[in-house]
Design goal:
The chain is mainly α. Helices cover 67% and strands 0% of the residues. It contains six helices and no strands.
């Protein structure tokens, strides 16, 4: 009997965590879809792994080979912050917004996607 109650307790804790995690993932995908469309890129790219990062790198105004630097441990954190800063700047935001995107992506990405932000950047550095 004790094992059943432990299993029930584990499920009672685990199921809401899984539901919240899936909900946040869906929210981020939809928000990224809108961000990509605002930048003139296809929104469906948000659901393709790796390609979605390539599109974010492009609208951040960074070269495509930044995706290769994302494979190097520790360096990828620095590059990710640089990419997020380029994304923020190209939507008319400041460094504070970059910090928000880094630590609270599930809040700040929907602000970019669903808010009044307009894409003002340049994608010419991509190639």
């Amino acid at each position: 009997m004790e094992e059943c109650s432990l299993l029930a307790l584990g499920l009672a804790v685990l199921v809401p965590i899984i539901i919240i995690g899936i909900s946040i993932a869906i929210l981020e995908i939809v928000a990224l879809w809108f961000v990509l469309e605002k930048a003139g890129e296809p929104g469906w790219a948000a659901i393709i792994p790796i390609y979605n990062y390539l599109m974010v790198i492009k609208i951040a105004g960074k070269p495509w080979w930044f995706i290769l630097l994302m494979l190097i441990p520790i360096v990828n954190l620095v590059i990710y912050i640089i990419i997020l800063n380029g994304l923020s700047k190209n939507f008319g935001k400041d460094e504070g917004f970059t910090v928000g995107l880094f630590f609270l992506r599930f809040i700040f990405l929907p602000i970019l996607g669903f808010g009044q932000s307009k894409y003002v950047g340049d994608k010419s550095n991509f190639m």
